[in-house]
Design brief:
CATH superfamily of the largest domain: NAD(P)-binding Rossmann-like Domain
Bound molecules: NADP nicotinamide-adenine-dinucleotide phosphate
CATH architecture of the largest domain: 3-Layer(aba) Sandwich
Strand order of the largest sheet: 7-6-5-8-9-11-10
Structural class: alpha/beta
Number of domains: 2
Strand content: 15-25%
Order of helices and strands: EHEHHEHEHEHEHEHEHEEEHEH
CATH class of the largest domain: Alpha Beta
Distance between the termini: 42 Å
Helix content: 40-55%
Number of helices: 11
Number of strands: 12
Shape: elongated
Length: 303
């Protein structure tokens, strides 16, 4: 009898994400097993409970998904699960806390595509700012953009110390070269964006972060990407489906183009779907985090 496929979903927060449960079901997992309030120290035991009860054929039909809201904790949980494997009892593990890895991967890849198409530039040629840069999506966006070579700063809305501490912590963990800064008032934002080439907006949903007036101070802005799908847009003038649409009314820069939340969401969906699918029946188990998500997003966008 064919083995049923199972996804064990470990989550350190009180609730597993319904978004991820829907996504996993649509990827043909037969059984989804959510675990809430999972502590890092439980992951080794839960992983070994997952692997030892199935034959090698069953192991290929078994996966672990790690959720939550914290990028560093999700990576620690993924590494702990990896250390608990006893080949051939080994299953694929996919970390995507709060959808941050797949969303950030899609955002950076969409922006990189428009940068190439409209400005013939690479991320490594650019200075990038991440507004809302200290939340899960913002940190993941910053790390991916920095590792891709962009000179990237995480911008917090309240505290430079918070932004700098987070930048240092993630640089130490992942070898990125992030810096941190603060922008509370429009004057702060105007000063920061003057020489920015790229703006990523990953702030709380439904909050306008950059008005057209603020944006008009940008001198060399090439691409903006906004993941907020709840009105008003995080960046004034960005439309949900923008994929390289001009943002000329809002910036002094020539040919600024924008990427909107649904354009990013479309690629995020495809990335998460493809990576969940890849967990089933693959010959070798894989350990999937923001790096694999970014590679998949680039593959989907053909960049
Ligand atoms: N398009 C897609 O496919 C997709 C997928 C997933 C998520 N999203 C969107 O991605 C965005 C980020 O998600 P998240 O979970 O990382 O969000 P989050 O944790 O709610 O917020 C992100 C950051 O925004 C900051 N923030 C709060 N109020 C602010 C304000 N008034 N001005 C500037 N910054 C402010 C937060 O700071 P504090 O910590 O101080 O509150 C935090 O650092 C959200 O808009 C979400 O809806 C989009």
């Amino acid at each position: 009898m064919a083995k049923k496929s199972i996804l064990h979903m470990f989550d350190p927060t009180p609730n597993n994400s319904p978004f991820d449960i829907n996504m996993a079901l649509d990827c043909d997992f037969d059984v989804l097993m959510p675990y809430a309030n999972v502590k890092l120290e439980s992951v080794h035991r839960l992983t070994q409970d997952t692997i030892f009860s199935r034959s090698p054929a069953g192991v290929k039909q078994t996966g672990i998904f790690i959720g939550g809201r914290d990028m560093a904790l999700a990576i620690d949980m993924l590494n702990t699960a990896k250390q608990a494997m006893v080949p051939p009892f080994e299953v694929s593990v996919f970390a995507d806390p709060s959808g941050a890895f797949t969303t950030a991967a899609a955002l950076v890849a969409c922006v990189a595509k428009e940068l190439k198409t409209h400005h013939n530039k690479e991320l490594k040629d650019c200075k990038a700012l991440v507004f809302g840069g200290t939340g899960p999506v913002g940190i993941s966006t910053g790390v991916i953009a920095s590792l891709a070579g962009a000179d990237t700063a995480l911008i917090d809305h309240l505290s430079a110390d918070t932004a700098e501490d987070i930048a240092k912590e993630y640089n130490r963990r992942f070898g990125s070269t992030l810096s941190g800064d603060v922008a509370t008032f429009d004057e702060d934002k105007i000063a920061l964006i003057k020489d920015a080439d790229i703006i990523f907006c990953t702030a709380k949903a439904g909050v306008q972060i950059l008005s057209a007036n603020v944006l008009s101070s940008a001198q060399q802005l090439k691409v903006v990407g906004d993941v907020n799908a709840v009105p008003p847009a995080g960046i004034e003038g960005v439309q949900l489906n923008d994929s390289g649409a001009p943002l000329s009314q809002a910036s002094n820069s020539k040919n600024t183009v924008s990427v909107g939340a649904l354009a990013v969401g479309n690629i995020k969906y495809k990335v998460q779907h493809a990576l969940l699918k890849s967990m089933l029946n693959s010959e070798k188990p894989s350990y999937i985090d923001f790096r694999a998500a970014y590679e998949k997003a680039k593959e989907i966008l053909d960049i």
